[in-house]
Amino acid sequence: MNEMPPPVVAALGHRGWSAVVDQAADEALRRGSVLHLVHAAPADDEAGSRLLRSAAGYAAARLGDRVPVTATVAPMAAVPALAAIGHEAAVVVVGRPRPGSHAHPYARSASVGAACRVGAPVLSVPEDWAAEDRAATVVVGVDEPGRSAGLLATAVGAARDRAAQLVVISTSWRPPGAGSAPLTHVTDPGTAERSASVMWAALSRYDVQPDDPRVSVVVGDERPGEALLAAARDATLLVLGRHTALVPTGSHLGPVARAVLREATCPVLLAAPEPHHWVEPTVSRGHLVTEVPTG
């Protein structure tokens, strides 16, 4: 008998949960996985139980009998709960406030905290996300192609799963010096061409060639965050890497990823950290969840 793939975990809050469920349901369908809904609240919190029942009913109506749907209350804070559950997930889907909203700081910290501490890939979805008016496009930001194997594999796989265009962004901006002259930067017209060649060589490991009409490589000389946000303005997914975990609290986000999470208008997929650097987070797993009926 074939084993069920790892579950897709959707972390639900009281705002924007339908967008999270929509994205998580699509992921579960693509992977043939169980969709597992989680809400962090005290075990006797009736409002949380009602939310989960509503979300489970919504997911079941959307998926029919194609994907099993389960739901649990995690009687602890959201980030520690997701850090523990995330080790057994294929991907963890979390919501985030739309850019410019005056959401409670906890809503933002929960989304960023999950990205910092969850070992599985994390998909962060704007609470008002709808992709109907956008062409299927996946954008990925790559700093060093030779050290980005997991990130490139995640981006190529996401584009293929969605039958989407893949846009690979690489920038090498340096701060200006006196007279606005770039510091430590030598103006060389061949730099961009060489960088693009290195990127295509890295992509070739995933059967992607320069003549592939659905893949483009863009090499620029600008701030990475600004370049990624501009490229992803009309995209359906933005893929970023994370720093490897060197401390027990998990994988830390760099300044570019934090800025993009704060400002991006599309879902952001943060690839899993490289496993050989992973350090188990210090989270107790005893009595983690309490089952909630979904009927």
TrEMBL record:
A Pfam family reported for this protein in Swiss-Prot or TrEMBL: Usp
Name this protein carries in UniProt: UspA domain-containing protein
The species this protein was found in: Nocardioides agri
Residues making up the signal peptide according to the UniProt record: none
Domain UspA intervals: 137-270
Annotated InterPro entries: UspA
